[in-house]
Amino acid sequence: MLMRKYYLYLSELEYRILVKSLVLMKNKLTRQGRFTDCVDDLLLKVFDAPKKKF
């Protein structure tokens, strides 16, 4: 089965909010003693995503 690709276009402010929210979620999961693998994967995808200047 083919996986659909979704594209997300964010402004600089939205990008910062996304990264900050993911870091806060990772910290919360760490404090609870839970795994943070999925949040780590998302952070890597966000950081590795190509940037487009408008």
Describe the structure.
Helix 1 packs antiparallel against helix 2 (37-48). The chain is mainly α and 54 residues long. The model has no long low-confidence stretch (mean pLDDT 92). The chain is built from two helices and no strands. The N and C termini lie far apart (34 Å).
Secondary-structure blueprint:
Elements: H1 12-31, H2 37-48
Helix pairs in contact: 1-2
In short:
Helices cover 59% and strands 0% of the residues. It has 54 residues and is mostly helical.
- Biggest pleated-sheet summary: none
Instruction: Work out the strand percent.
Output: under 5%
What's the gyration radius in Å? Answer: 13 Å
**Helical region count?**
2
Q: Order of SSEs, N→C?
A: HH
Measured between the Cα atoms of the first and last residue, the distance is 34 Å
What form results from the Cα inertia axes? Answer: flat
Query: Uncertain spans, ≥5 residues at pLDDT below 50?
Result: none
Number of distinct beta strands: 0
Provide the structure class: mainly alpha
Instruction: Kindly report the average pLDDT value.
Output: 92
Helix share, percent: 55-70%
Keywords:
mainly alpha, 54 residues
